[in-house]
Amino acid sequence: MFRVELENGHMITAHISGKMRKNYIRILTGDKVLVEMTPYDLSKGRIVFRET
Questions:
Q1: CA pair distance 31, 25, nearest whole angstrom
Q2: N or C: which terminus of the chain carries fewer CB neighbours within 10 A?
């Protein structure tokens, strides 16, 4: 689980998607990531992409 700061300043909890975990994509502090969020709970999300 990761704490992710959104562009609007909100903090959410996010986990890594299955394909990123399967391909051993590492997430480090300070990385920009793309997060999918559900409309049902805006405090949780899924990291689907790490920008270089």
A1: 12
A2: C
